[in-house]
């Protein structure tokens, strides 16, 4: 198989590829700029205008410019677009483009096919998409990740304006694919590459502690952590990864790592679930948990989907919760979920109704809140 050029950072492109084929590093840089820079985003050797002819011929013979092919685009009534891509091996991933009236447009990229984390209110983890067996299928390559953002940019330049933000919050746990995610994020923020500001590229994790440490040390991109609960009891249930890396360990690590990196803020995502994690006590515990961690907190409206056992917290209650945090000095935002009608909201990718991974037993004290029959 011909290697895909999109997988390479500029350093690798120069050293390992162009060099070994007998061309100069300067040509690698020109190629790199055509792959990512100046709104060119070449996806075939025909788009390589201005390059030396021999070099171009060599490339069309030996290199691949595309890692994914478009399968479908679905637009929700609020303008959110869900893009489906077919990969080389026939598997399918999803990318979501979320326009905001404020002018910010975010692309939400997937990092794996399927997901192993089994978070209790996520479609991707629980529901099959094209495949029947659930769970993690494979890591995406850096090329497959970068190309999602490149494609979204190409698609939007002609429409809504350009993509301003990238979030790694689609299918998969990005930090479980840390090698490729670090490489993809590098290309996105490279000044010769996609030129996103590192503050506008956010990698989201459910809390893989060792990888999170590595990410903070090696990347200057932003980090989001899905907290979603204030006690291990609840988090063990709704985010089983907590059984391996509990709240104390997770927050302790962030506190330690971030104290030396003053400007860096972590974004905590907290999905409000009626009767599960939205009490006044939860708000107070949350204040305590994030103490001394430079952070922002996003309170997210839960987006109920068919087959879901959870219910969203009422608006007044969310506002009350927010006010408690704000009063204690936390930076806190209320965020609605977007793209509801086509199931394109981030964290809910995938299609309902097919065979799912196991739901975990609902702890007794929450059964009333979910009204599950026993
Ligand atoms: C937790 O919060 C994130 C943040 O938005 C959300 O996408 C996810 O579905 C929630 N559940 C998890 C990770 O269990
Ligand atoms: C995904 O990548 C990580 C390293 O980034 C590796 O440890 C893991 O085994 C890979 N998973 C699969 C399913 O290939
Ligand atoms: C509203 C609500 O039921 N919140 C619960 C969240 O989880 C903690 C820990 O188990 C409970 O004590 C709260 O009552
Ligand atoms: S919320 Fe993210 S980490 Fe959790 S199962 Fe879904 S895709 Fe995986």
UniProtKB/TrEMBL annotation:
It is found in: Cytoplasm. It comes from the Eukaryota. Residues 1-22 form the signal peptide. CDD domains: Radical_SAM (cd01335). InterPro entries: Aldolase_TIM, Methyltransferase_A, RNA_MTrfase_RlmN, rRNA_lsu_MTrfase_RlmN/Cfr, rSAM, rSAM_sf. Gene3D superfamilies: Aldolase class I. Its cofactor is [4Fe-4S] cluster. SUPFAM superfamilies: Radical SAM enzymes (SSF102114). GO terms for biological process: rRNA base methylation; tRNA methylation. The keyword Transport does not apply. Residues 101-341 form the Radical SAM core domain. Keywords: 4Fe-4S, Cytoplasm, Iron, Iron-sulfur, Metal-binding, Methyltransferase, rRNA processing, S-adenosyl-L-methionine, Signal, Transferase. Pfam families: Radical_SAM. GO terms for molecular function: 4 iron, 4 sulfur cluster binding; metal ion binding; RNA methyltransferase activity. One of its GO terms (cellular component) is cytoplasm. This is Radical SAM core domain-containing protein. The lineage of its organism: Eukaryota, Viridiplantae, Streptophyta, Embryophyta, Tracheophyta.
């Amino acid at each position: 198989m011909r290697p895909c050029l999109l997988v390479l950072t500029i350093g690798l492109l120069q050293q390992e590829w162009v060099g070994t084929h007998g061309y100069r590093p300067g040509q690698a840089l020109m190629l790199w700029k055509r792959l990512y820079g100046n709104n060119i985003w070449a996806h075939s050797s025909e788009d390589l205008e201005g390059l030396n002819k021999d070099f171009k011929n060599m490339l069309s013979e030996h290199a691949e410019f595309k890692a994914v092919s478009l399968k479908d685009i679905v637009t929700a009534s609020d303008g959110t677009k869900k893009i489906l891509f077919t990969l080389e091996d026939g598997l399918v991933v999803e990318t979501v483009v979320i326009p905001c009236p404020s002018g910010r447009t975010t692309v939400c990229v997937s990092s794996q096919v399927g997901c192993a984390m089994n978070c209790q209110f996520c479609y991707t983890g629980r529901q099959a998409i094209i495949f029947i067996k659930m769970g993690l299928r494979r890591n995406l390559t850096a090329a497959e990740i970068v190309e999602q953002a490149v494609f979204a940019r190409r698609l939007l330049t002609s429409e809504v304006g350009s993509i301003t933000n990238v979030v790694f919050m689609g299918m998969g746990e990005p930090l479980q694919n840390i090698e490729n995610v670090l490489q993809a994020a590098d290309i996105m923020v490279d000044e010769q590459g996609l030129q996103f500001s590192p503050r506008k590229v956010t990698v989201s994790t459910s809390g893989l502690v060792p990888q999170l440490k590595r990410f903070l040390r090696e990347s200057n991109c932003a980090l989001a952590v899905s907290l979603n609960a204030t006690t291990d009891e609840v988090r063990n249930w709704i985010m089983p990864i907590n059984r391996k890396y509990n709240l104390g360990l997770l927050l302790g690590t962030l506190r330690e790592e971030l104290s030396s990196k003053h400007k860096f803020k972590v974004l905590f995502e907290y999905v409000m679930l009626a009767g599960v994690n939205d009490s006044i006590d939860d708000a107070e515990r949350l204040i305590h948990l994030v103490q001394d961690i430079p952070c922002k907190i996003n309170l997210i409206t839960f987006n109920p989907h068919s087959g879901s056992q959870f219910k969203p917290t009422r608006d007044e209650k969310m506002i009350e919760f927010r006010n408690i945090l704000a009063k204690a000095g936390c930076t806190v935002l209320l965020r609605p979920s977007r793209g509801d009608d086509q199931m394109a909201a981030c964290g809910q990718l995938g299609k309902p109704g097919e065979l799912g991974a196991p739901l975990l037993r609902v702890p007794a004290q929450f059964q009333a809140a979910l009204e599950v029959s026993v």
